[in-house]
Amino acid sequence: MQGQRLITRKDFAIQSTKLMEAQGWMQEINGPHSLAVKNQKSLNFKHSGTEVGHIATGFIRYSTEATVIARDLTQSYCIGLPLVGKQWIKIGNEQFTSDPSVGVILSPNVSFQMTMAEDCEKRMVRISRFAIEECLRQLLLKELDQPVVFQSQMNLDGEVGAWLTLYNQLLPLLSSPDSLLNGNVLWRPLEQALVKSLLYTQPHNYSEQLLDQRQLPAYLQSLEAQLHDEVMEPLRLQDIEKKAGVSRDRLYRDFQRYYQSSPMAYFKNLKLEAIRQRLLVASPDTKVSSVALDYGFNQLGRFSQEYKARFKELPSDTLNGLKG
Questions:
Q1: Which CA distances in Å does 94 have to 69, 111, 112, 148?
Q2: What is the largest distance, in Å, between two alpha-carbon atoms of the chain?
Q3: From 87, 256, 259, 302, which residue has the greatest number of CB atoms within 10 Å?
Q4: How far apart are CA 149 and CA 133, in angstroms?
Q5: Chain centre distance of CA 80
Q6: Spacing of C-alpha 253 from chain mean position
Q7: Are 58 and 10 a contacting pair, CB within 8 Å?
Q8: CB 54 within 8 A of CB 130
Q9: pTM beyond 0.90
Q10: How confident is the model at residue 131 (pLDDT cuts 50, 70, 90)?
């Protein structure tokens, strides 16, 4: 059995009373921003945590009122969950207060101003843009036509509380250097569960499309599960029709309505998605041709073209971690 690409783990920690040092540290993580504090003599910046795969989690405080202004978080979604104290968020014309019952999620491409109160201490969760977009693309089975932008205010007593529960359950495992999660086999599905839970529970600009898919007719729900289970099989249109148990006209009509695709194009996309997931975790010595053949792609040149058209990169780029 071939090895898998290893999940990277990195622990980080800093404590500083210097404004420029605190600002520089956070800029390395979240990109360019300005930092101003009310009382520089009281500044006691502390940030510590762990990054595993595409998710980082940690603790942060400034010990004095601190204001951060940023235009763009570049490649990450940043979630702030106050443990004590308050923070005030301003995004465009929107303003709200974040406290232990109200979190905040800041999306890339969104400018914001955030002021933490003197006594504010919070957990921060950072999820890579790649992980969010990759998961959503798998759920919708299509390319995204615009960046994912979440509703910034997180009502932790609402539906997103389910995501918070999952995060709190994973937190001890994420924080332990000896955790069994330090490997692809165990960590990757848990990482995907955390991202998927966030996409389903916190409103964003693709929420309506996700909701439509959750309201699939019963026969489509069953068919979708079967197609996922048999993604390596050489199914034909007749086979899919038989599994669906409805007329061809209805099958095409419902696929266009719920998937914006024909049944066979949908099944091919499932195969391409499955191949991509294999390549993302495969070792560098894996042969792309062998993986493609496993899923029934016998014409490798055509397969590479279709893969690049869908994912904007060659399968060999995915295998080698050269993401566009």
A1: 15, 11, 10, 18
A2: 74
A3: 87
A4: 11
A5: 16
A6: 31
A7: no
A8: yes
A9: no
A10: very high
CA–CA dist 61, 281 (Å, integer):
35
Place 109 in a pLDDT band, splitting at 50, 70 and 90: confident
How many Å apart are CA 165 and CA 169, to the nearest integer?
Answer: 6
Phi and psi angles of residue 9, each rounded to the nearest 5 degrees, phi first: -125, 135
72-88 per-position pLDDT tens digit: 777 899 999 999 999 99
Three-class SS string for 164-223? Answer: HHHHHHHHHHHHCCCCCCCCHHHHHHHHHHHHHHHHHHCCECCHHHHHHHHCCCHHHHHH
What's the length of the chain? 324
Q: Is the dihedral of CA 12, 16, 21, 23 positive or negative?
A: positive
184, two tokens: 């692809």
Contact indicator for 26, 33 with CB cutoff of 8 Å: yes
Tokens of 224: 């979708």
A 10 A CB-CB count for 159 gives 13
